[in-house]
Amino acid sequence: MDKAKFKQEVISYLLLVLGSALFAVGDVMFVNPYILAPGGVYGLANVFHALWGWKISVAGICMDIPLLIIGTIILGPKFGLKTVVSVILIPVFTFLVETTWGYAPVIYDHSTNFYPLAEGSDYVFSFMKDGVRYGFVPDLFLNTVVAGIIYGVAIGVIFRAGATSGGSDIISMIIHKYTKISLGTLVLIVDSIISLTTLIAFDDIRLPIYSIILIFIESKIIDLVVDGMKSYKTMFIVTDELEAVRDYILNDLERGGTLLVGTGLYQGNERKMIYVTLDRADMVKLKSNLHRLDPKAFVNIMESSEILGYGFKALPKE
Predict the structure, then answer these.
(1) How far apart are CA 112 and CA 42, in angstroms?
(2) What is the share, in percent, of the chain residues with pLDDT greater than 70?
(3) Which of these, 318, 271, 280, 272, lies nearest to 302 by C-alpha position?
(4) What's the whole-number mean pLDDT along residues 237-260?
(5) 3-state SS of 39-55?
(6) How far apart are CA 290 and CA 285, in angstroms?
């Protein structure tokens, strides 16, 4: 392994450690006290902890490892070493946070602080400390936003390291193999069912609703971490003023592009089309100047989720 490859591997494993630690912090200190279940085995682990007092780390790894083994048997060796490391690191960090911090919330109404609950109380927002159950006044919205951000950064960093967090995604992949339902749809169904367990277990409609809000925030943050803040647009421009548009792209925007030649369907004439990918700012400039360059131009603008190659993100080495 050359030095560059070795450095890349070291960085990826450091990211894996960081992401796993952040996930543990988000789950124990923000998600668990509010009994949220934003999908995954750790969503179920939070419900099991609230119902029966099981440690989140123990419940999580007891579900993750069998799922990983079953997934490998059914789907083949799709799960790399980094995913296995992630499945081990997350419960280790979760156990450390459980042991040192406990299950007290970080965000709550500090004007009332924590207060001991009477034995047998069924008050939902509570936690155990030194054998005593304490209640707290929740701040559901703020906690959900912060939890979604932490979860999103954590899982995004794990993805950047080239791993996954395993868990319920494996269930979705197994069902996908036999039903051919799209993987995205199955992930949504499985995570939604896990979120709904909070309603069944605690009869509080707010819990699954805030869990789904958390999932939405988490997904947006994951996209930012994995793909970055940059937003790109792909433009197809059919124009009779080819030289004017070409000159503006090359000289004013200092961007390249590709000239495509096609045939119009209506009259069968040869038409030339410019294919160009730009960031949002340059796209706005080109669009606003097209009326001056060619008022009759036809333009199709599409969102580009990821652009690889010269002038954009480097192509992956593997």
Answers:
(1) 29
(2) 94
(3) 280
(4) 90
(5) CHHHHHHHHHHHHHCCC
(6) 9
